[in-house]
Amino acid sequence: MSQRTSSNGSLPYADGDFYSFEALLSDKERDRLHEVRAWLDREVRPIATECWNRAEFPHDLVPKLAELDVMSPVRRQGHSNLLAGLLHAEFTRADASIATFMGVHDGLFTGSLELLASQEQKAAWLPEAYALEKIGAFGLTEPLGGSDVAGGTRTTARRDGDVWVLNGAKRWIGNATFSDWVVVFARDEADNQVKGFLVDTSLPGYRATRIENKIALRTVQNADITLENVRVPADFKLAHANSFKDTNKVLKVTRLAVAWQAVGQQLAAFDVARRYAVEREQFGRPIASFQLVQNQLVTMLGNSVSSMGMMVRLAQLEDAGQARDEQSALAKAFTTARMRESVAIGRALLGGNGIVTDYGMAKVFADAEAIYSYEGTHEINTLVAGRAITGISAIA
Asked: What are 85-126's pLDDT values in tens digits?
């Protein structure tokens, strides 16, 4: 990560990249990371807290994101998984809500099209998605189905001539209040298999209602979706989305992205805590001069460095085509647990100032709770890794 300057001068480890992981990138990719980081400093950081406080999404940011051209860095642009991960961490470091918007649109949504659509479907749909001319969402989680959605999908699909008729409900669907498209997963009544459909949100019977009163990722517009006899043209069924095993191909990749978010959120907490510690004075000197505060900062640093080290290796395995689902599960479980500890330490370090968004830490602390929960809970991901090392499933 880039070196950041504190009020007491520039320090070699002020950026949190204690083991120089960024140096593993090529010169070209490092330049790209620096370009995106500067853009985030200029366009996202200044508006992030106010948008979060108001629970409003900055729609005027979308054209600027399109100009930045960061969509599909691996499959479309040919970059490494390491750069893609570091970019996602950097987005999260600037604002977890905007990073989540990107994770939904450019991870879950475009990832579904890239992995599960036919070549003809990709040619028809992906250009507008990459250009952010059409915003996408991803409809899997349901009001009564979260961890058990693989076998418990209640939304149904029924073939009726040249259309599919969808009925059901989805919950926690990011971007869904303003998206143009949403990939909906539904159980085919004919063969009981979960299949994927690209749904135009203007179709009759589709309705999205914003979820209110969130304490995390307030800028993200999550929604409850209802589908009442929504008639989807047959050629809008994703060609290669024919079972939940196909769906899981998308989740394996996006689970990695959320683990990178956990890295970024830890770096965000470290940024705030380190700066506060060197600037805040008590008993006539900066609190960074106290041993207990240095212990807190080093614990946060150790958590973020160990998490990043795991993710760097996993990115290398992804680039080599050797990464496995259970490795993604362990990464998501481990990094989010370390994140939760780090943001709690950071919040405590700021004392009372840690519970108001004015100082940055309260927002980081609250947003971490959402990252901890989505893309598979800590418990479920732990059991996926446990199954891999014992050969015995503890999941019903």
From this structure: 999 999 999 999 999 999 999 999 999 999 999 999 999 999
Beta bridge partners of 177: none
Predicted model pTM: 0.93
Same domain, 211 and 124: no
Do 240 and 308 lie in one domain? The reply is no
**395 within domain boundaries:** no
Q: The domain containing residue 154 runs over which residues?
A: 136-244
Strand 285-286 to strand 281-282: parallel, antiparallel, or no bridges (unpaired)?
Answer: antiparallel
- Distance CA(327)–CA(317), nearest Å, equals 10
At CA 86, angle to CA 60 and CA 78, rounded to 5?
Answer: 85
| Domain identity same for 263 and 229 | no
> What confidence tens digit (pLDDT) does each residue in 317-360 have?
999 999 999 999 999 999 999 999 999 999 999 999 999 999 99
Task: Compute the distance between CA of residue 174 and CA of residue 220 in angstroms, rounded to an integer.
Answer: 6
User: What is the Cα–Cα distance from 108 to 257, expressed in whole angstroms?
Assistant: 10
Q: Which two tokens stand for residue 41?
A: 């400093």
Q: Are 274 and 297 in contact (CB under 8 A)?
A: yes
Q: Could you tell me the two tokens for 257? A: 């992205």
